[in-house]
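Priority: medium. Attachment 1 of 2:
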């Protein structure tokens, strides 16, 4: 099975590292990573969670291709002849003419328990909306937004004191479990494929640059705390504006005042 990886963030790097461990231990036979496609410097897509500069996609010993938009490089993908594309940490919509290239399909990872939490900013929305149970879904990518058939899910709890990076680390752990469990099954064509129940779908709202601003007058202490947690690293931070200057809050706690 020839696998092409499509990723531009730390989550994808960690999952690729896990998959290589499985292959190197010979737990799976006849699997080859034929290439990694990532974003180049000219790409307009912003990645808040880009991999550590000391790490590199070249660490894996396979060809690395840097692109601006994956949909502009169909011939590259066709030349690599992948049986499977694994997409993890890629904030561009994949068009049909790319999806149809690999015979085993395109597999993605979404950090919610689909069909709940489809759509944008899953970590930020999970915290802002007060979601208590979340997880990672491994699924087949289709032309919809996080609507493809589910392969498997790993669940975790969201604590009241979890910040964005705490969730991110839980997501990495869950994603590694999914890769370890289901990659061998995919190679043998014996993986689950469960259609999503669209009646149970919940789509997260799109967030904009104003959402991380704290309104000290109208925002409740609970909402302020959620904003600080949700927009903390790797994001830009929640802030107030004072004397035309932006003051960013990375950590906070609610204290009871007694007289």
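Attachment 2 of 2:
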């Amino acid at each position: 099975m020839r696998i092409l990886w499509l990723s531009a963030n730390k989550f994808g790097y960690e999952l690729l590292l896990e998959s290589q461990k499985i292959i190197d231990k010979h737990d799976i036979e006849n699997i080859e990573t034929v290439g990694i496609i990532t974003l180049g410097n000219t790409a307009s897509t912003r990645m808040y969670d880009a991999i550590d500069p000391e790490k590199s996609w070249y660490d894996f010993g396979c060809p690395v291709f840097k692109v601006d938009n994956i949909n502009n490089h169909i011939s590259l993908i066709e030349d690599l002849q992948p049986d499977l594309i694994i997409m993890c940490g890629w904030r561009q919509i994949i068009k049909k003419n790319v999806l149809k290239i690999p015979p085993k399909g395109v597999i993605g990872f979404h950090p919610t328990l689909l069909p709940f939490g489809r759509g944008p900013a899953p970590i930020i929305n999970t915290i802002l909306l007060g979601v208590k149970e979340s997880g990672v879904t491994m699924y087949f990518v289709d032309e919809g937004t996080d609507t493809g058939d589910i392969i498997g899910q790993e669940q975790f709890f969201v604590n009241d004191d979890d910040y964005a990076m705490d969730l991110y680390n839980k997501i990495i752990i869950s994603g590694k479990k999914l890769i370890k469990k289901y990659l061998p099954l995919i190679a043998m064509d014996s993986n689950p494929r469960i259609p999503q129940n669209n009646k149970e779908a919940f789509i997260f709202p799109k967030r904009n640059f104003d959402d991380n601003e704290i309104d000290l007058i109208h925002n409740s202490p609970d909402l302020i705390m959620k904003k600080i947690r949700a927009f903390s690293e790797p994001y830009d931070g929640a802030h107030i504006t004072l004397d035309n200057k932006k003051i960013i809050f990375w950590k906070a706690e609610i204290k009871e005042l007694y007289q």
